[in-house]
Amino acid sequence: SDWDHDNLAQIYFQDEIPESNKFHKFFRIRDVDVIKGFFNKEQVGAEIKALPEIQLHHIEKFTFKNNLIGFLKKFETAKIFIRERLYKYGLWRSKKLFNWLDDFNPDVIILLPCNYEFIYDISKEIAKKYNSKHFIYFTDDFLINKNTSTRYKKKAREVIEFSDGCFAISEAMQREYRSIFNKKINILINPISFEKKIKLNYLLPTKKI
Length: 209
Description:
This protein is of the alpha/beta class. Helices cover 36% and strands 13% of the residues. The chain is built from seven helices and seven strands. The strands form two sheets. Strands 4-5-6-7 form a four-stranded parallel β-sheet, covered by helices on one side. Strands 1-2-3 form a three-stranded mixed β-sheet, with helices on one face. Strand 6, helix 7 and strand 7 form a beta-alpha-beta unit. 15% of the residues are buried.
């Protein structure tokens, strides 16, 4: 991408390290950080340095951590309920986060919908605080899936109405979301960069793409 690396930043809520050899502005808030916030709110979250190498996760061997994650997914409903309650206390509002946001001062917020209400609320609050434009980017069928609860669809509709615009990753998704939410939705395709450092010979039968 030709996007200036200093003009793009991300806040995320998973126990992961981003992988990028260009972009470097990342702020991570984990559930464990929020729990620690009950004792020291100012220390919730941290600025994270990205890993310079792209990892081939799909060929990693099974580990105890992978098996544990698979086990916990069986209790997804309970996990969602606990996370929602945890973030409702507002302990994610740390001095470190807002110092980081003050330094970046976002002009635009782009939200990827998910199955957590608190993500929508945090995105709206940050957009209001910094007077930022707010956009929704649909990259999967979560909100049009029949198994998605009405509660999340209601919250999504609330944030969509609040937003300045919407994007979808494909024409098919554009049509589906436009028919449901009756909103203008532009297409924003996610490009793929084939880095020389990634060995794709075992995936691609030919060098011609």
